[in-house]
Amino acid sequence: MTGNIVSFDIGSAQIKLVWCAGGVCKAAVSAPVPDGLVRGGTIVSMDAMADLLRQLAKENNLPRSAQAAVILPAPLVFTRITELPPMTEGQLTYNLPFEFKDYLTQEKSRYYFDYAVQELVRGEDDSVTRMKLFACATLKTTIEDYRSMMNRAGFKLKLALPEEAAYAALLTDCIRRTQPESRDYCLVDVGHAGIRMFILRDDRFITRRTIDLGMLDLIRSISERQGVDEHIALTHMLSNYEGAMTDPASMDLYHRMAAEITKAVNFYNYNNRQQALRRVYLCGGGAAVGHIGDAIREVADLEVLPAADLMPDTGSDAPWLYTRALGCALQA
Asked: pLDDT for 81-135, tens place per residue?
């Protein structure tokens, strides 16, 4: 990462952006997403989002000369781990589209393809016999839409990245800085619409799990119990009005989340006994809810840590919000 980079992670409920310059995080900013502007992880109006990003940049004195990096939402990018025989870069460029033949809905010429080499498998004579790759594909129109959005917001798009690659970049930086003993990671993003778990070994993405429980479920539960609309329920959640966060129904939801997270970890550990996970790192908006971490500790023999332990200083009081955005900036 060199120069000025502003990295954007646009979620269903919040926009998170990180400004980095010269390898140092200068600012980390979040703002709510207006109702209906993002649905299912996808931006509904690029122009409206661009105007919102421009306003955020102005309010937070972000440099207009900065280049932009952005996380591509999961519905807009195909990712997979694949294994190929050794080949040249040109051969990879030709062959990579065929690895996505079961996923693409349009002609392959309409997609961009990219990859990162995760491992070179060597034979007895030390020659490379196989290449393990993290590969991705997205429509060219998707990139052009994001490029136009960033141009309207006053930025020049440098990089668009799937979230798996952002986590990998974050861990590359973490390992370089800290040289940890254990290098098996499980990042648990407790988001608005659901929970997403990303498992990596060193900085190599292994697998992902999705759980259909999130902070929206908590907001709706509070809304129903207290007889208020979801906007008011959100303020009640944030202020713990009338014990909204410790109500038995809320505590039950935390334990349901913990049970699903534990099941996913146990399934992975059963199939990977030599690299079993012993800890999870919480990020996303739900990481601020201490009861979720407590519930995981109650139901599983796991150490629960904040994702901030993996990150350089962001200067923010809520660094767990910026895990992906920071990883994206580090990759840029």
From this structure: 999 999 999 999 999 999 999 999 999 999 999 999 999 999 999 999 999 999 9
277 and 190 within one domain = yes
272 three-state secondary structure: coil
Q: Angle 195-76-35 (CA atoms, 0-180°, nearest 5)? A: 65
Domains held by the chain: number:
3
pTM: 0.94
Q: C-alpha angle with apex 246: 187 to 320, nearest 5 degrees?
A: 25
Burial group, residue 315, by CB count within 10 angstroms (0-12, 13-18, 19+)? exposed
Q: Tell me: the pLDDT tens digits for 179-227?
A: 887 789 999 999 999 999 999 999 999 999 999 999 999 999 999 999 9
**Assigned token pair, 269:** 């550990």
* Residue 229 sits in the same domain as residue 296: yes
Is residue 327 domain-resident?
A: no
